[in-house]
Amino acid sequence: MSLDELRTLLARHVRPDMTTAIDGVLISKVEQPPPPSASMSGTVMALIAQGAKRIALGDRVYEYRAGQYLVASVDLPITGHFTEASPEWPALGFGLTLQPAAVAELLLQAAPGDIPPAGSGVPSGLAVSDASDELLDAVIRLLRLLDQPRDRAVLAPLVKREVLWRLITSEQGAVVRQLGLADSSLTHVARAVRWIRDHYMQAFRVEDVAQMSGMSASAFYRNFQAVTAMSPIQFQKQIRLQEARLLLATHPHDVAGVGMRVGYDSPSQFSREYRRQFGAPPSQDAARLRGLPLGGTPALV
Q1: Under 8 Å CB-to-CB from 288, ≥6 apart: which residues?
Q2: Can you give the pTM of this predicted structure?
Q3: Nearest 5°: CA angle at 30, between 24 and 36?
Q4: Which of 141, 150, 207, 248 is deepest in the core (most CB within 10 A)?
């Protein structure tokens, strides 16, 4: 029954831009399975109430459907699409943006023994799990506040904290908890991810980025691969190609110039890698870009 109410609430409050009256809460509705599209994940929890979605990160594929959620603890370049959606049975999803400061605050307030022990190794930046009854209940109570404007300002922050606590103590809690740990391996990788995203046009040495992130080169490479499913150079290429696609939406007749602006010295290499990523050469893909919603809200919801 909880999923039934969740579907009803999501369908009633969905907006074209996915936003809601509660900061950080997103709602999506998809009536036709679109082709796979590349975008950034955001740091978000995405819960599906109806339908199913498939996400690819590097060589890893994640699938989640009604009653399951996916957590992204790092803003990653992904390719994804809904696999089950129709006008009669649209895909419906709930999203909550994850803030490191909010995670850290809950971790500091938790009593000894309240937090499950961390496993060995560095968790992936993405993880899928079944939603517990407690998590579903908290999400539903958060969405009910969209119908209760008088209570929303006071109660929404409290219920959002409860949702976050359910995630922190869940099966995939280690992925979420690392967001709030200043010295976690994921935090070091996230620092490198931000640097590469901000300087994606620049060539770099992995050793230099590792030093900037506070890790040895070998530990950095191993942890970066564990979190992102890509090497740092592969990650940079993904960012370059996604930025190129955004630029082509406004400069469709300047393929060579766009390639140079994102860091490619060779037009032929740019066209070859672009086609491999998006299934069409830049000049052909540019013609269809204006009808696509590029950028904006996280792609997992």
Answers
A1: none
A2: 0.84
A3: 95
A4: 248
